[in-house]
Amino acid sequence: MLERTFIMLKPSCIERGLVGEIISRLERKGLKIIQVKFLKMSRELVEELYAVHRGKPFYDNLVKTLEGRRVVVMVVEGRRAIEVVRNIIGATDPVQALPGTIRGDLAIDLTDNLIHASDSRESYEKEYKIFFKEEELQTI
What we know:
Strand order of the largest sheet: 2-3-1-4
Structural class: alpha+beta
Mean pLDDT: 95
CATH class: Alpha Beta
């Protein structure tokens, strides 16, 4: 059965010209892009997306890193998409991410580590609704 997941390419991904590389890795794995858009992250969007981390030591730096900057948000679909994407992106800390993963090969910074992806079905259900209307995700 196919499932969907939410992905956000962070500002450093855009600034370093890695959007195509990352999308290519996702597509080569067999994931299908359902919807994609560029947008500028307002403080409200950042706080809503990362509400689960409010109060943690890294939260303020995370908000500062993303607020007012451009990102790419997308929904992708595939067999066990959440697990597949989490494996493709690698550990949150690029130092711990294995070679061959997006973060292991390309990321430098812990906070702006190129990519965010839903870590569960519940996260996906919450996260995609912040950026997409249901009708935007309809496929033919």
